[in-house]
């Protein structure tokens, strides 16, 4: 419930790629879900690296940055095509993740509570 609430809040504040979409990372199955905000149905499922823990768009929504924590990388995705363009090596932190949990907002990440 926290993820959907945070996603709805981010959608209202940020107006992501398409105003009618919520983007959610799914740690358990290594995917992203794109949810239609009107129907709350998944309209796209995109494969990512291992254990995507956080996502954020760049300022003009042409790139999506994905923290693939068990892949030790920040992946750069084209949100239109869903293609992973390249990986940025990140290494590991004390909690074995490459970054903190985030959700997409306009211009900068918003922290999510665990």
Structural commentary:
This protein is mostly beta strands and 114 residues long. It is built from 1 helix and 9 strands. It has a 4-stranded antiparallel β-sheet, with no helix packed on it. The longest helix is centred in the first third of the chain and has 13 residues, at 2-14. Mean pLDDT is 75; it is low at 1-18 and 100-114.
Number of strands: 9
Oligomer: single chain
Which strand order spans the largest sheet, edge to edge or round the barrel? 4-5-6-7
The arrangement of helices and strands along the chain is: HEEEEEEEEE
Shape: globular
Residue stretches low in confidence (pLDDT < 50, at least 5 long) are: 1-18, 100-114
Strand content: 35-45%
Based on CA atoms alone, the radius of gyration comes out at: 13 Å
Mean pLDDT: 75
Helix-residue proportion: 10-25%
Largest sheet: 4 strands, antiparallel
End-to-end distance, in Å?
12 Å
- The helix/strand class is mainly beta
Total helices: the number is 1
